[in-house]
Amino acid sequence: MLGFLDSLCNALLAHNAIEVHRLLKHPLARALPRNVREEALAFTRGQATGVRAPIHALRFYHQMHELLVEEPAHEMPGPQLELPLGPEANAYEASATIARASRLPRRRAIGERHR
Questions:
Q1: How do residues 79-113 score in pLDDT, each as one tens digit?
Q2: Contact in structure between 43 and 21 (CB atoms under 8 Å)
Q3: pTM for this predicted structure
Q4: Less CB within 10 Å around the terminal CB: N or C of the chain?
């Protein structure tokens, strides 16, 4: 499948309409998503000197490459570090005090007038 997608992307990038039509008749072309097939057909109808890129085809190729090609798992150089993130007793008291203080009426500063 990757070989077929690679050939299709190369034909699209080269604006080779004959090769694109030949590849779209291949049995593997039935597995292509609709947007990739429509993009390929649009490329065959466009100008040969266009500067468009086959974004859908290239994205699909990249997705298939990521799924089909196995890469070695990256191993950590050492053991995983554990961070002590337990609750602290003082944290709850401080937040409750701040919440209570925000509900108290605001005190007037010295020299402020009554309205």
A1: 777 777 776 655 555 555 566 666 666 666 566 56
A2: no
A3: 0.55
A4: C
